[in-house]
Design goal:
Layout lengths: L2 H7 L2 E7 L6 H11 L9 H12 L4 H4 L3 H6 L4 H17 L2 E8 L11 H19 L2 E9 L5 H10 L5 E7 L11 H9 L4 E5 L5 H9 L5 E4 L7 E3 L5 E4 L1 H8 L4 E3 L1 H6 L11 H6 L4 E3 L11 H12 L3 H14 L4 H29 L9
Bound molecules: inosine and zinc ion (ZN).
Inosine binds next to helix 5 and strand 2.
Length: 372
């Protein structure tokens, strides 16, 4: 047993994952062949995966987002959307994820004649089939795009599908120059419908963006929130001296932060992982969750994000249980369903692993002990 195997096996909850940011390279190649899409640089899946990651790992969000042109290009038919959603669920199972909220922007999938509703129906079909075959729970979040003008329509679409598996509405895309306030009608529509909002904020723009997302747009969760650290005063040793009003509000209201460690390095939200404010947020008891963002572009999995948290922030087994419960508490499915996962899936899963680790460490010497 290794720490990696333990982290892979324990139940995990993923709240921030882009469907069009997590395709398998092999699938992209096959789908591109089917539609004669010529813009891929290679037909070798390993090289293609590396190419996406290299393209994304440039230290700014604008370049990070460029790869999506190719993934969305091969997701323009009902069949391809079903396939990608289904395979995502299989990948979740392999990664030990028990519940996932995946997201995509329906407006980016209309190039070959699909209507907005068709895209949502197809993705839901793939997710449902995946749930049946792999036993992973899911919720679907629809993204409006910051640089597009149809966010109200997407918000309406999300509400229309609330009984079929759509659980919330998000705003994604380039942050600088596109404040969430510009999409206020979409957010007000969601609020009036008693529905759920998460917004990408504080990734490529500062704390102002997080403030707008919460106080103007009514966000229930924040995607990334990395730059909330700008509202926290630290001393030279990194200890908290004072919270600004916004940080205090986020802390007190238990607003969930969808932290994406590796993606934040690739987009330049932080210069290196050691400097990610996650450690401070966690220590100060913000409601943090750990997420993948874009598994293809960021070459990551939930297991890898957890490994990163072990390596750089010294998290232990109990910390992961706490964070996973945080995530489940913050999911957009009904309260009773969240409790079901917490008490019937997550806690027993951690307990089982705890017993295995204890017996493993008892027979191994001090040097070979694994995470506990
Ligand atoms: O880290 C991110 N920040 C902002 N937008 C993103 C990020 N990752 C992906 N997308 C955007 O969300 C769309 C729907 O899934 C993607 O097409 C991409 O443009
Ligand atoms: Zn994202």
């Amino acid at each position: 047993m290794t720490t990696e195997l333990i982290l892979k096996t324990i139940p995990k909850v993923l709240l921030h994952d882009h469907l069009d940011g997590g395709l398998r390279p092999q699938t992209i190649i096959e789908l591109a062949d089917e539609i004669k899409y010529k813009k891929l640089p290679t037909k070798d899946p390993i090289e293609l995966g590396e190419w996406f990651h290299r393209g994304a790992n440039k230290g700014n969000l604008v370049e990070y987002l460029q790869g999506f042109e190719h993934t969305t290009a091969v997701m323009q038919t009902k069949e391809s959307l079903i396939r990608v959603a289904y395979e995502m669920m299989e990948d979740m199972k392999k990664d030990g994820v028990v519940y996932v909220e995946t997201r995509f922007a329906p407006a980016l999938h209309l190039e070959k004649g699909l209507y907005l509703e068709d895209t949502v129906k197809a993705v839901l079909e793939g997710l449902e089939k995946g749930k049946e075959d792999f036993g992973v729970g899911y919720g679907l979040i629809l993204c409006g795009m910051r640089n597009m003008k149809n966010s109200l329509e997407i918000a309406e679409l999300a509400v229309n599908f609330r009984r079929q598996g759509v659980v919330g509405f998000d705003l994604a895309g380039e942050e600088g120059g596109y404040p969430p306030k510009k999409h206020i009608d979409a957010f007000q529509f969601i609020q009036r419908a008693n529905f759920n909002i998460t917004i990408h904020a504080g990734e490529a723009f500062g704390k102002e963006s997080i403030w707008q997302a919460i106080q103007w747009c009514g966000a229930h969760r924040i995607g990334h929130a990395t730059r909330l650290i700008e509202d926290i005063v630290l001393d030279n040793e990194g200890n908290v001296v004072a919270f600004g009003d916004l940080a205090q509000y986020v802390l007190d209201k238990r607003i969930p932060l969808e932290i994406c460690l590796l993606s934040n390095v690739h987009t330049g939200a932080v210069d290196k992982i050691e400097n990610h404010p996650f450690g401070i947020f966690y220590r100060e008891k913000f409601r943090v969750t750990l997420n993948t963002d874009d598994r293809l572009m960021s070459d990551t999995t939930m297991t890898k994000e957890f490994m990163t948290a072990v390596k750089y922030f010294n998290l232990n087994f109990d910390d992961f249980e706490k964070i996973t419960i945080n995530s489940m508490k913050s999911a957009f499915i009904p309260y009773k369903e969240r409790l079901h996962y917490i008490y019937n899936v997550i806690k027993p899963g951690y307990q089982k692993m705890r017993e295995q680790i204890l017996s493993f460490n008892n027979i191994k010497g001090e040097n070979e002990k694994v995470i506990q």
